[in-house]
Amino acid sequence: MSADLTYVVAGLSLLLAVVLPDLLSRWPLSPAIVLVGVGLLLGLTPLPDGLPLDPQSNGAVIEHVTEVTVLVALMGVGLALDRPLHLLRRSTYGGWSATWRLLVIAMPIGIAAVALLGWAAGLAPAAAVLLGAVLAPTDPVLASDVQVAGPSTGEHEVEQDDVRFALTSEAGLNDGLAFPFVYLAILLATQGSISGWWAEWLGWYLVGKVVVGVLVGIGVGWLLARVAFRSRRDSLRVAERGESLLAVAALVTAYGLGDVAGGYGFLSVFACAMTFRSAERSHDYHAAMHQVVERLERLLTLFILLVLGIALTRGLLGSLDWRGVGIGLALLLVVRPGSALLALSARRRPDHEVGGLDRRERWATAFFGVRGVGSIYYLAYAAGQAPELGQDWLWSTVAFTVVASVLLHGVLAKPLMDAAQRPG
What we know:
Elements: H1 3-23, H2 31-43, H3 59-80, H4 97-120, H5 125-134, H6 162-177, H7 179-191, H8 198-230, H9 238-241, H10 246-260, H11 265-278, H12 285-316, H13 322-345, H14 359-367, H15 373-385, H16 392-421
């Protein structure tokens, strides 16, 4: 991308990030919809000729930009969740009941269903598994309309509603938990028959890297919280000064150490944010940190959506066919709602308890499986590890699914969430 175009697109994204939320508050449109639309229009002009839109030639750029965006979103999600979770206190698990069900039941069913659809459409096993994996995580980036608004602190502490909490916490965790299945696809593509590596995948990629990532994140979050809130040195108690850029330092540190230790860095960032949030829970510093992260996330997200819209009119959907359209719509309208509804309904938690969902809330939670930037990142990452997985058809199908999700969920977010939360 030329320097001039970088400034133009980034400046337009920043301007829209400032004005769109209030401008669209009375309309059934999300900023994401508008940004994709603006990008589509820009794609019809000569302006974007220097943009790196081709995923085959610019996979590394796409991978790193989307990676940073997801990391920022995960930090924001972890800081926004008010409901405590302590690994050694089983009493805190119940409030997360819907989250566990969506992760342990709905997510594997969704991966398997999309992989089977891809295989039936003629994909090789590795590509089919990858399609299921990259479309599995719900997105912490594009789902702001159905997620918690932010941490409630000080005099403004309120209980976050169960639908938004379930969708927010699910998005915070499943972006990291999709990684083992992305690696499963990479191993299938690069090493062939599973007989030689299935034990390694099961023990290390599915379990070991998850545990390492979470433990590193907990350690970083605990240490930074202890310094920020309780250090004996005044200069290190940054919470008293309200120095909210610590949020950015924390996410970079947690991600880097998580990767160095061999764990999943996405989980490290989320665990770090959750652990930091558990310290001095009512302190206003959490809200200040979240505000900084939220603004950075908004800018990065709108930048990506603008470029995505441009790419759509510059050939990104060139390989899309009825198979890709069918799989994308099946995921959004059948696979996600069906698997999530099954997970949330079987031996469910009573809806009068924290973490329990009534019938309307279960339907709303099941429907809003927003797909977005995380799917683009995972596909770019896998293509970088195994180039044969970066085929044009996969890029077109994933791009179509993301845009369809932006339109579908963006238009329906406000009316359906209002209906789910209406008394009676």
